[in-house]
Design a protein that fits this description.
Layout: H1 5-21, H2 26-33, H3 37-49, E1 55-58, E2 62-65, H4 67-89, H5 95-105, H6 111-120, E3 146-147, E4 156-162, H7 169-176, E5 183-189, E6 196-202, E7 205-211, H8 213-216, E8 219-223
Antiparallel strand pairs: 1-2, 3-8, 4-5, 4-8, 5-6, 6-7
Helix pairs in contact: 1-2, 1-4, 2-3, 4-5
Length: 225
């Protein structure tokens, strides 16, 4: 069943928030989609009333996907992440650019073309941001890593995944010299939601940089012994 571009954007956003927080709140959806909370509420009420329902919505309790909605969301995510991988590996676009382009192109791919891209890329398991790519049946490996903010001070780490849900975030990480495979140590975590200070390994030298909690929450790492 075909869905509008807007519905697909909502399904993908709800999926991400539900995976991270258990439920998608209207305020969080509004921030992620860049629209007003009132517009979000109106849209999700409409989606919840439209048969067959893709979402379940209870006022003041947030939004969750139905089984049908989850299946549709995973299909969108598969298209998006395969597109990102194709644009990166074949056309050489950077990880911020591929995300922006895939946001538009993901709505216009047939399943035949999605399958052809998958075969051409030899069935990749993750995209340029380290996010897992669902297979044709909808199965998806568990996302790698833990949030950078979850590490204790003096813990060494390696970056394995970035959640590109903030506009311009990936370009900003490029400016800081942070990418998949970057290694470093958590130097300090300021109180009251302040920045996280990192000591980054850069060849044979080290440098310190500080990043805000909102970004650090979207960087996933594995501890290094």
């Amino acid at each position: 069943m075909m869905h509008s571009d807007a519905v697909e954007d909502y399904l993908k956003a709800i999926y991400g928030l539900q995976e991270r927080e258990g439920v998608a709140r209207t305020g969080a959806l509004a921030r992620q989609l860049g629209i007003t909370a009132g517009s979000v509420t109106e849209m999700i009420k409409r989606m919840a009333r439209t048969p067959p329902p893709l979402i379940s919505y209870r006022q003041h309790h947030g939004v969750t996907l139905t089984a049908r909605g989850r299946k549709a969301a995973v299909a969108i995510i598969r298209r998006h992440r395969l597109l990102e991988t194709f644009l990166h590996q074949v056309l050489g676009l950077g990880w911020e650019a591929v995300h922006q382009e895939a946001e538009t192109l993901e709505h216009h791919l047939s399943e035949r073309l999605v399958g052809a891209i998958d075969r051409h890329l030899s069935y990749p398991r993750s995209d340029p941001h380290g996010e897992p790519i669902p297979d044709p049946s909808g199965h998806m490996s568990a996302p790698a890593g833990v949030p950078l903010t979850g590490l204790e001070e003096k813990t060494a780490f390696r970056m394995v995944r970035v959640e590109p849900s903030l506009e311009g975030m990936l370009d900003y990480l490029d400016e800081l010299g942070l990418g998949l495979g970057t290694t470093g140590t958590v130097v300090g975590k300021a109180p009251f939601g302040g920045p996280v200070t990192l000591r980054i390994s850069d060849g044979g030298s080290h440098r310190e940089t500080a990043i805000g909690r909102e970004i650090a929450d979207r960087i996933f790492v594995v501890p290094v012994l």
